[in-house]
Every structure is written in C-alpha cells, then in structure tokens.
C-alpha cells in the first residue's frame, strides 16, 4: 500500500507539473505573439468614393453649363470639396504618425533571437506596414482629389471669364423694343411650365411647414425671426453702442468702434434670422435640388442686401451725426439715407425673380428681360441718388451753408459712378443688357468693398493712434517696457498705421476682383487668401503661426538688446578699468551684432529657407559690384575700427586738414566734433585708407606750445631769453618736465627770431594756454621797453 500510494502521489505531481508547464508556455506564447494592434484611421474607402463621385458630378455639371450664372455655385461646391478633403487629410495624419512611430519602436526583425520572438515581431511588423500602406494610399488619393478640385476651380474661372466676355459683348433687344417686354405679358409655355414646377416644389415645402401639428411651431419660428431682425437688431445695436461708449476711450477710436458695432449688430441679427427661416423650410425634409440651389443663392443675396443697409446706416449715422466717420454734412446724409434701403429692397425682389428663372433654365429672352429690369432699376436708383445729392449741395452753396468744396477723392468717385451709370443706360438702350447688368452689379459690389474697407481702415488708424499715443495708458506701457522716447513711439505708430492701411488697400483691390454680388464673407476670405497665399508665397513657407513667432522674436529681441546695452553702459562697463572710448566701442559692437542676430532669428521664425533667398543674394552681389561697394567698404571699415581700435571715441585726430574729437563710430561713418562744436561725418573707409594723426593715442600725449618772436637787432638777447623763460615757468599750465627752452632761430637784417617751447599736459589745452602766454609776454615786453620788430612789407 505504501508503494502504491507513493506511485499515485508521484503521478499526480507529474501531472500538476505538466499542467503548470503548459500554462507557462501558454503565457509565454501570449507574451511573444501578441495580436497586432489596429489603428483607428477614421476614414474608409467609401468616403473616398463619395468624394470622387462628388467631383465627377461637379465636372459633369460644369461641362453642361451654358451661361455664366450656372457656374456661380459650381465654384463654391469645388471649394467645399477641397475643404472636405483637407478635413479628411487632417484626420488621417495622426494615424500615419502613430503607425510610423510603432514601426520605429519595433525596428528590424532580430536574426539572433528566439524563432518564436522573430516570428511574432515579423507578423506584427507586417500588419503595421499593411495599415501604414493603406493610410499612405488614402493620403495620396486625397492629394489627387484636392489637386483635381483645384484644377477644376481654375477651369471654372476660365469658363466663367469666357462666358462673361461673350455675354457682355452680346447684343440683344433694347429696352425700347416692345419685344423686350413681351415676357412680362406673354410668358412662353415652356418657361411657364418650368416656373410652375418650381412653384410646385416650393408649395410642397410650404405645406410641410404648415401641416397640422407644425403650424404653431412654424408661426413661432417666423415671429422669432422677425423679432430678431427688428427688435433684436435694435437691442444688439444699443448693447454694442453702450459697450463702446463705456468701455472704449473717448475720441476717434470710440467713433470708429461705434460704426463697426452698428454693422456687426445688423449682420449678426440678419444671420440669425436667415438661419431661422432656413430651419423653417428644412426641419421636415431637405430642400429639393432645385429649391436648394435657389435657397443657397437667396441666402447670399440676403447678406448682400444686409451689408448695403448696414454699412450705409453706419457711415451716414443719421440719428447720431457726431458718430459719422466720413466728412458728410447733415443735409447730404439725410438726402442719401433712403436710397440704400430702396436699393437693397429692389435687389432682393428683382434678383430673386431673376434667379428663379436661372435655376429653372428658362429661355434666353426671359433671362435677358430679368437682367435688363435689374440693371434698369439699379441705374435709376443710383442716378436719382446722384441727382438728389447734387441738388442738396447746390442749395447749400446758394444758402452759404456748404462748409467746403468736395475733395479730390470725392470728385473722382462722383465722376466714376456718374460715368458708369451713363454707360449702363446707353448699354440698355442699345441692347447690351448683360453689359448693363454687369456694370450695375460691379457698382454695388464696389460700394460694399469700399465702404467696408474704409470702415476697417479708419478703425485700424484710430487704434494705432490710441495704442501708441504717449498720453494713453497703452502708450505709456510701451514706453516703459521698451524704453523708447515719444518721437520713437510716434514713428512706430506712423509705420504700423501706414503699413496696415496699405495692406487693407491691397486686400480691398484683390476683393474687388475675386468677388461680386452674392459673394459670402467666407468665400471672399478664401479667395483672397488663395491669391495672397499663392505659389510665390508658399515657396517662402510664410504661415500665420510663423508671422506671429517672427513678430514676437523681433519685439523680444530688440527689447533684450536695448535692455542689455543699457546695463552695459550704465552698470557694467563703468565699473571696469577700460577707458570711455573702449566702453563705447564695445557697446556699439554688441548692439550691431545683436541686431544682426535678431534679423536672422526673425527670418528663421518666418520659416524662410535660405535656398529661397538665392535671388536676393544674387541681386545683392550685383548691387555690391556696382552701387553698394562703398557701403560695404564702409561697413567693413567700421568693424575694423571697433575691433582693432586705431581710433576710439574721445580721441583727438587730424585727417585731411580737419582736427576734432571722435564722438561716435557708427556702422557706416564716424562723427567728428570740431572745435566750433559742429559735427563732421567722415566715412569709415577714409579713417582706414588715409593718413591719420591720432593726437591722443595711448593716453600719454602732451601738447606743445611754441611761439616765434621777431625782435630788433639792438636788443639784449639774454634779457629777452630770461623774460620769455620766466613767463613760461610761472604759468601753471606749463609742465616742469620737460622744461621750457628758448632757441635762437634766425638772424636777419630786419631782426632776430627767438623760438620758445613749452609742454602742457594735454593737446586739447594748447590753444587756450598759447593765448594766455601771448598776453603775458606782450605785457612783460612792454614793461621792459622792448618792442617787436616789424617784418618787411611784401612789394
């Protein structure tokens, strides 16, 4: 029994050990053979197929377009497609970076490891490589789609340009021709059916919004939209005006802010009201494609009309004349006030009807009739505005209330608008309806751009004037932080104000060409950035983040250099044993090197690669070879003067017959102060290449006071010698060592010449001591009864 029991126990232990070994093997197998982790890409192949289908449909739509208007939405859809591609690309890039990082962690497959380990790493690496290849493929496909969409936008722009040129130069019926007005009384049957189909789709949307159970909610939404546009706009305007009055500083900046607040209140309230109306029509089912195209254009048209009324209200400021930005008298402003509202209302109604004919594809006669009506209405409204303003100004001139004559810019604007209206009316009378419509639309668009950027320019200028004013809190803060004077602060204000104004004018000019009536703010910004961020700027890799970093690097760098230079001049260098000239040279050299480093750091922060500046270097090399060689030579000479220091600040030098003290050594030239306290500017290269006498080099130079006296032959030379030596000796400015001495210089029939020489501590005191000695010697000679000999007159 004992042996049997021992055998059973032994077998059980073996089984337990075997089971444990299998479990451990299983654990080890799990450790070395993990399942490859999958990365969530966030994009599927169906998403790419959807984008490709959208692009193909858009290309087909462009190929079937027959007029300029049909291509207005195609360019917007292509731009939206590019934004979708960018969004998907941005969502994939993190996954690509993650997969690449995982592959870098795995590294190559180890050859000397356990076969199980090598196999597991190979499997995982293959899985990760497969996922990364898939992501790379998606990114390449998206890049191709984006390039195709960008090419399509370029093609659409070319087609639109060609169609516009063809339509503008196409002559149709004149407004004087009765057949031009025939669509108003006898609409063709095909066009009537198309218009009826659109009305039927609109009726379906209307019935869904007013079906039982939805009427109350529809009424609430409509009333809410009306309240937002009326009461909400008024409250928003008052609220923003209160903020400007109580939070903005008194002056021009507050006035500009009030004008901007008026525009913002109008645009924001209109935006909310339009979105509510859009929700009313689409909360049940989406619009049909035909109604969706019409609604999209009408939304743009509504924003255009809102901008017309909002900008006019802000600039004319009828209720608060003191808030008015342009120099317009009250009678003229009152006369102009109703016309923007009439213009916006006419555009909203007539262009809506015209767009309904465009989206339904009505006949050319109906489309031309709609364009002609719009052009005629806008021409009459704007022409009436000009006549009304002219009449008011003439009445004010007769009454003597006209403050001053109109400026040049005002006269040019008046002449331009009047000429455009005359051309538009002539085009309508001669049958060039599309040309007239184009001119009137451009006039409306120019008004929106001109008014908007005028407001922004005034706001920018007033902001700069306040922020950098020496009397304002921000200006005082900048003075304290940067350690700059009032004139320098005013210079910064002038540069920033002028630069911002030039940038706004450039953007306004670009906006005139990339937009038009019906262009939204997002489209305008996108198109403008596409031009400003073209291929030429992309080569320099200038992006907003880099601009911010470069600005910070420039401001902080200049501040640090100025601070450290003040510390050197006021604290560190005065405590050293260096002379003042050496201290000034070191301070100037440090500032020059620091500013050069700041410039390099700023360019680096902009992301500019030096390879992209090769053309600048080439241009500089040519310029140096011709016109800049003197500047470069003086710059190098200035560095030599600051390093080798043959002359330094405070030295008394003599060069080209000019003697004076060195006051400052700049990068290009050196300032020398003459004896009459005037400043002479000498190029640095002259101090290096010409013979120069440094009187005070070494710091131990002594001045020499030498006088020559012509005396009669009958004097006692020894008596005169003793008299001269006594005069020199008793003077406190003459040094004892070397001692003064008298020499018998010449013996002539007209007399003898004695020369007396003495030394002084500094060459700068020679003139004053020499004058004092002459007075003293003449006094002693007169007391001794000795007269100076007269030199023979020259025949």
Description:
The protein is an alpha+beta fold and 795 residues long. The chain has 25 helices and eight strands. Helix 8 packs across helix 14, helix 11 (338-360) packs antiparallel against helix 12 and helix 21 (614-626) packs across helix 22 (629-644). The strands form two sheets. Strands 4-3-2-1-5 form a five-stranded antiparallel β-sheet. It folds into six domains: 1-31; 33-168, no CATH class; 180-528, no CATH class; 546-627, no CATH class; 646-697, SH3 type barrels, CATH 2.30.30; 703-783, Alpha-Beta Plaits. 23% of the residues are buried.
Which SSEs are present, and which pair or pack?
Layout: H1 2-32, H2 45-64, H3 72-106, H4 115-168, H5 182-185, H6 189-209, H7 215-247, H8 252-282, H9 289-316, H10 330-336, H11 338-360, H12 364-399, H13 408-430, H14 433-467, H15 473-482, H16 486-514, H17 521-532, H18 535-540, H19 544-572, H20 580-605, H21 614-626, H22 629-644, E1 652-655, E2 658-665, E3 669-673, E4 679-683, H23 684-689, E5 693-694, E6 703-711, H24 717-730, E7 741-748, E8 751-760, H25 766-783
Helix pairs in contact: 2-3, 2-4, 3-4, 7-8, 8-9, 8-14, 9-11, 9-14, 10-12, 11-12, 12-13, 12-14, 13-14, 14-16, 16-17, 19-20, 21-22, 24-25
């Amino acid at each position: 029994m004992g042996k049997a029991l021992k055998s059973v126990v032994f077998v059980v232990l073996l089984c337990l050990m075997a089971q444990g070994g299998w479990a451990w093997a299983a654990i080890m197998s799990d450790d070395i053979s993990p399942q490859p982790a999958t990365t969530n890409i966030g994009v599927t192949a169906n998403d790419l197929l959807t984008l490709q289908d959208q692009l193909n449909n858009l290309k087909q739509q462009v190929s079937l377009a027959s007029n300029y208007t049909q291509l207005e939405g195609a360019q917007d859809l292509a731009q939206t497609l590019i934004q979708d591609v960018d969004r998907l690309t941005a969502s994939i890039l993190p996954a690509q970076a993650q997969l690449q990082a995982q592959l870098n962690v795995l590294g190559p497959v180890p050859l000397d490891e356990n076969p199980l380990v090598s196999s597991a790493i190979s499997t995982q690496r293959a899985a990760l490589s497969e996922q990364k290849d898939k992501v790379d493929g998606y990114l390449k496909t998206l890049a191709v789609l984006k390039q195709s969409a960008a090419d399509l936008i370029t093609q659409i722009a070319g087609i639109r340009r060609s169609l516009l040129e063809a339509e503008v130069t196409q002559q149709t019926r004149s407004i004087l021709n009765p057949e031009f007005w025939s669509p108003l009384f006898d609409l063709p049957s095909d066009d009537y059916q198309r218009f009826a189909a659109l009305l039927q789709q609109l009726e379906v949307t209307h019935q869904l919004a007013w079906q039982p159970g939805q009427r109350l909610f529809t009424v609430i939404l409509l009333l809410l939209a009306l309240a937002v546009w009326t009461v909400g706009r008024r409250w928003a305007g008052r609220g923003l005006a209160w903020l400007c009055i109580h939070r903005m500083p008194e002056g021009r900046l507050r006035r500009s802010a009030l004008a901007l607040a008026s525009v913002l209140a109008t645009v924001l309230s209109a935006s909310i009201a339009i979105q509510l109306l859009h929700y009313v029509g689409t909360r049940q089912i989406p619009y049909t494609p035909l109604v969706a195209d019409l609604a999209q254009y009408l939304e743009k048209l509504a924003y255009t009309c809102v901008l017309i009324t909002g900008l006019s209200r802000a600039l004319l400021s009828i209720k608060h004349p003191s808030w008015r930005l342009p120099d317009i008298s009250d009678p003229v402003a009152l006369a102009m006030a109703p016309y923007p509202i009439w213009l916006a209302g006419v555009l909203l109604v007539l262009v809506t009807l015209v767009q309904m004919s465009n989206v339904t594809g009505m006949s050319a006669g109906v489309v031309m009739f709609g364009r002609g009506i719009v052009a005629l209405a806008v021409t009459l409204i704007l022409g009436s505005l000009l006549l009304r303003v002219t009449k008011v100004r003439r009445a004010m001139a007769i009454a003597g209330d006209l403050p001053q004559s109109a400026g040049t810019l005002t006269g040019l604007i008046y002449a331009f608008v009047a000429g455009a209206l005359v051309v538009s009316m002539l085009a309508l009378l001669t049958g060039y309806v599309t040309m007239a419509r184009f001119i009137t639309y451009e006039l409306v668009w120019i008004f929106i751009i001109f008014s908007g950027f005028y407001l922004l320019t005034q706001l920018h200028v007033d902001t700069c004037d306040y922020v950098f004013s020496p009397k304002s809190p921000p200006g005082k803060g900048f003075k304290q932080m940067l350690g700059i004077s009032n004139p320098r602060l005013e210079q910064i204000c002038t540069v920033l104000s002028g630069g911002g104004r030039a940038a706004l004018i450039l953007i306004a000019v670009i906006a005139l060409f990339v937009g038009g009536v019906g262009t939204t703010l997002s489209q305008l910004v996108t198109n403008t950035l596409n031009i400003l961020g073209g291929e030429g700027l992309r080569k320099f890799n200038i992006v907003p983040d880099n601009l911010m970093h470069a600005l910070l690097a420039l401001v902080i760098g200049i501040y640090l250099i100025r601070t450290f230079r003040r510390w050197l001049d006021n604290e560190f260098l005065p405590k050293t044993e260096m002379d003042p000239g050496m201290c000034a040279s070191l301070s100037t050299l440090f500032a020059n090197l620091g500013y050069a480093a700041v410039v390099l750091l700023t360019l680096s922060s902009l992301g500019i690669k030096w390879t992209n500046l090769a053309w600048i270097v080439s241009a500089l090399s040519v310029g140096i070879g011709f016109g800049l060689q003197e500047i470069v030579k003086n710059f190098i000479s200035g560095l030599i003067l600051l390093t080798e220091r043959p002359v330094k600040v405070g030295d008394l030098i003599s060069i080209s017959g000019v003697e004076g003290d060195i006051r400052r050594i700049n990068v290009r030239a050196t300032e020398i102060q003459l004896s009459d306290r005037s400043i002479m500017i000498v190029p640095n290269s002259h101090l290096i290449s010409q013979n120069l006498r440094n009187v005070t080099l070494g710091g131990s130079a002594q001045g020499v006071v030498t006088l020559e006296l012509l005396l009669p032959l009958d004097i006692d030379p020894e008596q005169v010698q003793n008299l001269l030596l006594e005069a020199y000796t008793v003077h406190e400015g003459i040094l004892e060592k070397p001692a003064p001495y008298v020499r018998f210089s010449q013996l002539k029939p007209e007399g003898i010449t004695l020369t007396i020489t003495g030394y002084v501590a500094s060459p700068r005191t020679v003139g004053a001591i020499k004058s004092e000695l002459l007075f003293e010697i003449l006094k002693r000679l007169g007391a001794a009864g000795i007269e100076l000999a007269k030199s023979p007159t020259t025949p």
